[in-house]
Amino acid sequence: xxxxxxxxxxxxxxxxxxxCGHSGVFASWFHMKPRCPxxxxxxxxxxxxxxxxxxxxxxxxxSELVYAGLMVxxxxxxxxxxxxxxxxxxxxxxxxxxxxxxxxxxxxxxLAFDLMFRPERPEDFEPGVIP
Length: 131
Known about the structure:
The chain has helices spanning 2-13, 53-78, 84-101, 103-117; strands at 26-28, 31-32. It has a two-stranded antiparallel sheet. β1 (26-28) and β2 form a beta hairpin. With 131 residues, the chain is mainly α.
């Protein structure tokens, strides 16, 4: 179980198909292909157009965790005189850009999370493609 978990998430974090590990799952930064070009896994599983709402939640959580970690690290490194103004000038733009930076990762991580709890079934693949 831990091996599968590691495999799914290591593939997702490197923007690869969580099922087969091949790249090329994105048409552009903001558009994921409808299915894996290698194994045929259909990426929007079961719910249709609302499938990635969970991915958007992951996007916000990932962005906030990275921001919090960087801020705590910066405060620890500069304590007892942290540059508050510089933190503000860097932190605000980072929080505006972070969801854009993590957008593709959030989609593949959400797919890996879903595959962890609802493993692949034959109907999750494009007809005619053997996984």
